[in-house]
Amino acid sequence: MLFSELKRHIRAGQLHPAYIVTGEDAFLRLSAVNMFRALSGDMPDFNLCELVSPESATVITDACNALPLMNPRRVVLVSSCKTDLAGVEKYLDSPSPTTVLVFICEKPDATFSKILKKLTVVDCAKLDRSTIMSWIAMRTKENGSSITQPAASLLIDYCALDMARISAELDKLCAYQYDGVIEENDVSKLTSATLDFKIYELSEAVATKQAKKAAQILQSLSESGAAPVALLGMLYAHFRRLLYVSVTPSYERMASDLGVKEFAVKKAQQQAARFSARRLKAICDSLHKADYDFKTGKINDQTALELVVLRALDA
């Protein structure tokens, strides 16, 4: 089930014996875990067991077989689990009717291969843009403020759909504009964009040949504290990804093969459409040459970074 369906599922009271909370958004995973924690009632010391890196499956099953105290349910949360779960597999054939077992991990690995089919998956992947926009509007109202749609959209971009960052930055913005309206300028002034987003912005400026804007973004990147050689590497990875998605038809495992999230692939496909494959190849070649010139001592890393942007604008 999706994270957005979990609250309704819990309220319905038809709980399953075991779940696995998984997905790339840490904020959503924590929110889901807190919903399960709440099932332990007013006596969590007796009805909530949190196991981190349990030594064996026996530790897990013993916790699951304990009875709740003055509460209909006992909750067992298991994180960082690397032990053999054969014993848990056997337990799940006849689970305790009063226990809710919850595993927590970003992505299930081979550890869960024996039991994954017996677990109800709570998918905490990044929320879609429209859902986050609705959440921002609701959260802003709860905090005594309001926010314009362009400001909310910019906040999402700056935080790369990361709900933990969005939540923290939105609370700061609401405090700044309490009983007021949060505008785009407020987001730009108070929220730091991720380096990935700044690289995306720089690429966008290059795509539309906005030299002045590209220079401003490049200066912002240089002032961010990141080493020019690191920024050069990020630009190379970004434009190689654009070239790849430009010449490769979309397929299911593309994000996995590129080692990025689905969101990054979608953004790359949108931006790659602004370039020709020939121009992307020329930019990648220029980046490769700049990297070589820097590593062989012909130019310094800052000069290499600036040359790359100038050549990309001219490509």
How would you characterize the overall build of this protein?
The protein has helices spanning 3-12, 26-37, 44-47, 57-65, 86-91, 129-142, 149-158, 163-176, 184-190, 195-207, 211-223, 228-247, 254-258, 262-272, 277-295, 301-314, and strands at residues 18-22, 48-52, 74-79, 99-104, 120-123, 146-147, 181-182. By secondary structure, it is an alpha/beta fold. The strands form 2 sheets. The chain has a 5-stranded parallel sheet with strand order 2-3-4-1-5, sandwiched between helices. Strand 3 (74-79), helix 5 and strand 4 form a beta-alpha-beta unit. The longest helix is centred in the C-terminal third of the chain and has 20 residues, at 228-247. The model has no long low-confidence stretch (mean pLDDT 91).
Task: Annotate the secondary structure layout.
Elements: H1 3-12, E1 18-22, H2 26-37, H3 44-47, E2 48-52, H4 57-65, E3 74-79, H5 86-91, E4 99-104, E5 120-123, H6 129-142, E6 146-147, H7 149-158, H8 163-176, E7 181-182, H9 184-190, H10 195-207, H11 211-223, H12 228-247, H13 254-258, H14 262-272, H15 277-295, H16 301-314
Parallel strand pairs: 1-4, 1-5, 2-3, 3-4, 6-7
